[in-house]
């Protein structure tokens, strides 16, 4: 969930932002439709030189029934503790990790390394991938794999990897970028940026060693739900957890990942099938 001016937005290349809607509403939808984890990234906070919007996070956490990670504007241990008290299982830091790397070690000692996620915004420069700061606007002259290894050594328990080049492109994930980071660290890497169709998720899962795949625009601006995406992945033999009543077993999907119409006999039978209210 990319948040700008307290509104969820669609991000394109870290430069263009189109409004989606209220954070709490978007979280409630995804929580009810089988998402595994939600990450909130407030991109306005650091730019405006302010701390996290605790009120907004508190409202969002009440609607969230999955693990929640929160980033944006985190300045110190006190901010981390407050976010944890509001319901964040993890905090995500970016500029803070670049400017005050030692705080990663201190935070890991207090909360545990699993609580600390370092977000890395990377872009291809020449033949390598470099880390960018300030919302992906400023190159810092550091190769992405080198920085990833450094934050792991300091105590980061997870890396959230954003591709600036692929952000909002709908052209697929940058597999070479993912490999450039995964090959240098042992902690989980979450890859983000570029999802445009379900097969992009499958490709990133089977062709890289990323621990998880993240997306925002894909769910906001298409008809896809997490359940349908997981069902598609399951149909292609990708191991994925699918624990909802709606699993679309034996369903078929078109190229865009949309469900194709089932036979009339099946639909008629389904009309009279009782399913108790589901609690996800």
What's the quick description here?
This protein is an alpha/beta fold and about 280 residues long. The protein has helices at about 25-30, 45, 55-65, 75-85, 95-100, 100-110, 145-155, 175-180, 200-205, 215-220, 225-235, 265-270, and strands spanning about 1-5, 5-10, 15-20, 40, 70, 90-95, 115-125, 130-135, 140-145, 160-165, 190, 210-215.
Summarize the structure in words.
This protein has 280 residues and is α/β, with parallel strands linked by helices. The chain has a domain at 1-91: TIM Barrel, CATH 3.20.20.70. 36% of the residues lie in helices and 22% in strands. The chain is built from 12 helices and 12 strands. It has helices spanning 23-32, 43-47, 54-63, 77-86, 95-99, 102-111, 144-154, 175-182, 198-207, 217-220, 226-235, 264-271, and strands spanning 2-4, 7-12, 16-21, 38-42, 68-71, 90-93, 116-125, 128-133, 138-143, 158-163, 189-192, 212-214. Strands 1, 2, 3, 4, 5, 6, 7, 8, 9, 10, 11 and 12 form a 12-stranded mixed sheet that branches. The protein is globular. The two termini are 20 Å apart.
Ordered list of secondary-structure elements with their pairings:
Layout: E1 2-4, E2 7-12, E3 16-21, H1 23-32, E4 38-42, H2 43-47, H3 54-63, E5 68-71, H4 77-86, E6 90-93, H5 95-99, H6 102-111, E7 116-125, E8 128-133, E9 138-143, H7 144-154, E10 158-163, H8 175-182, E11 189-192, H9 198-207, E12 212-214, H10 217-220, H11 226-235, H12 264-271
Parallel strand pairs: 1-4, 4-5, 5-6, 6-7, 7-10, 10-11, 11-12
Antiparallel strand pairs: 1-2, 2-3, 7-8, 8-9
Helix pairs in contact: 1-3, 7-8
